[in-house]
Amino acid sequence: MEYDPSVDALAIDFPRAVDGASAKLVRLDRDRALDFDSEGRLISIELLNVSRGVVLDGLLEPEVVRSALDLVGPGRPAR
Question: Going from the N-terminus, what domains does the chain have, and what CATH number goes with each?
Answer without folding.
Answer: 2-72 (3.30.390)
